Amino acid sequence: PFTDLTVAGPVALSPVCLGPIEADALEGEINLSQGALRFSHGKLALGSGTIRFSGELDLKQASPGLRLDYAGRSLPLSRFARWAGLKFPLEGTGAVTGVLSGSLDRPELDAQLKFEGVSVVGLPLGQGEAHATLQHQVLRVEPLTLGGVSGSLEVDFATHRVSVITRVRGLGLEPLSPVLARLLGGQVEAEFVGDFPWEEPAGRFTLQSAQGVAGEVTLGSQGLVASLRRPNRWSFSAEVKQEKRSYSGSASLRVDSLSLLLKDLLGSEVPVEGELEAQMRLALGPKDPGPTFAFWHHHQSGAGGGRGEGVTHEPSSLYPPGPAL
């Protein structure tokens, strides 16, 4: 019965939920007339932060056209992590300004982001910024800087491919794990480069530390190959292959100085001298309670000069409590 319906007035909702996305409150003014839905004085409350927006949705097109200008500040990053389903602790705040345009089935994005007081799993990264664009179904984040971390990200939603480059410079690990910091020998530099279908992550990770640790991990659709060494301390290498939902492979560990290794692990001197070598076979399937290792060989000497050797041929199982940082 209506030929040119006009609807105008204020809108207020609290809370606002759309799937995993939840906000504390939404308010603004709308005007529906002449085939267009217009938003003005919009405000979306997220914890201590607020996003203000205004724009228009053109309903006359088969796929409604969109134009939305927005700006936000003091936005809690923990809220966005929860939306994305991330399980690790992420703290800090962000600010954003940008434009959302295009159409509902082919949106386009241009956003400038800034970050303050960021910490990931307790590791302080400080402040940073990034520029994000979405055009022709390709999301690009470049450049991205956050403390000593820099990189770029490209996600092609049409071909389901991801390209990522991440570099870390002068990162101290003491706030995350003093033991790990001692094992690796001070500040670390790392790089990850990958280009892969998003259902099969792959790439090459390299690591260096201030006290000589050097190594790399190559991850592909068939498994991974890892090699890591700290001169005159220890070395580790592994090759693991994936077949369907099972993993199998081998690993070797050599410890050149048990006293230095125990000092790194325990944080104090231990009256043990010697070396250690281990060769391991790994088997892990979907029904296994944990990875199974076989063949262990070592030799060591104590403070009194005694020596010992041991060989284990029977497989032994390890039941981890679950991944943790």
List keywords for this structure.
mainly beta, 325 residues, 7% helix
Could you give the topology of this structure?
Elements: E1 7-13, E2 16-18, E3 21-23, E4 25-33, E5 36-46, E6 49-58, E7 65-76, H1 77-83, E8 90-103, E9 107-120, E10 123-135, E11 138-146, E12 149-156, E13 161-171, H2 178-184, E14 188-197, E15 203-209, E16 214-220, E17 223-230, E18 234-243, E19 246-255, H3 258-266, E20 272-284, E21 292-294, E22 296-302, E23 307-312, E24 316-317
Antiparallel strand pairs: 1-4, 2-3, 4-5, 5-6, 6-7, 7-8, 8-9, 9-10, 10-11, 11-12, 12-13, 13-14, 14-15, 15-16, 16-17, 17-18, 18-19, 19-20, 20-21, 20-22, 21-24, 22-23
Describe the 3D structure:
This protein has 325 residues and is mostly beta strands. The chain contains 3 helices and 24 strands. It has helices at 77-83, 178-184, 258-266, and strands at 7-13, 16-18, 21-23, 25-33, 36-46, 49-58, 65-76, 90-103, 107-120, 123-135, 138-146, 149-156, 161-171, 188-197, 203-209, 214-220, 223-230, 234-243, 246-255, 272-284, 292-294, 296-302, 307-312, 316-317. The strands form 2 sheets. It has a 22-stranded antiparallel beta sheet that branches. A two-stranded antiparallel sheet has the order 2-3. The radius of gyration is 27 Å and the shape is elongated. Mean pLDDT is 86; it is low at 311-325.
